[in-house]
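Limitations
The structure tokens in this dataset are predictions for the assembled complex, not deposited experimental models. Users should treat interface geometry with appropriate caution, especially where small molecules or nucleic acid strands are included. An illustrative entry is reproduced here so readers can see what is and is not provided.
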Amino acid sequence: MSTPSGHTRAISAARVKGTTIYNTAGESIGHVEDVILDKMSDRILFAVLGFGGFLGIGEKFHAVPWSLLDFDKERGGYVVPLSKEALKAAPVYDFSDLLQDDGAIGRHVNEYYGRKAA
Amino acid sequence: MSTPSGHTRAISAARVKGTTIYNTAGESIGHVEDVILDKMSDRILFAVLGFGGFLGIGEKFHAVPWSLLDFDKERGGYVVPLSKEALKAAPVYDFSDLLQDDGAIGRHVNEYYGRKAA
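Predicted assembly:
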């Protein structure tokens, strides 16, 4: 089984890090900082979208469902089906919060983006 | 919900890379080279165990179910519930094969390790 564009469905977690993420208006809103995995199952909890900051200082993070990231070959990055406004209102975290996740963040973002996704 | 040892269940994919992997006899058998994710869902397809080679040349790879990796704090690495013999007989891949996966490798390793796991 392959993706709609005919590519393999497998992707290396090490290689997604750094990929630019765009919103529905085509604006760059950040990059994939990391992907958070569940130690207890074969589930991906969520992807981490890093944005803002300067020279590594003050960077903030959104937690976004992994399956919401859609790779756009032309742009060379992921598109999330969210407007600027929806993202502005989205939960923001420090990276250390995301590693303290006990499943709650994953559930929360799935609900939040379930409501907001176009 | 947390792990049996009381830790958070979330782990960063970027940070597992390089972690040593041990077999049931406590011998180091390789390291986590990568974690392969499914583009089409929130599933982890499998973890990649790198072993052998010299100065990066000739390294080979096993595909192992992510959920088979059990972190051992004392050893500071993952333990897979497999004997030396079971691993010797396990499927070996070049890294490029693993990225061509269309789901078949994930299914195959789950069956293989379902049979072999202690």
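Some entries come with short summary sentences. For this one: Chain B has a mean pLDDT of 85.
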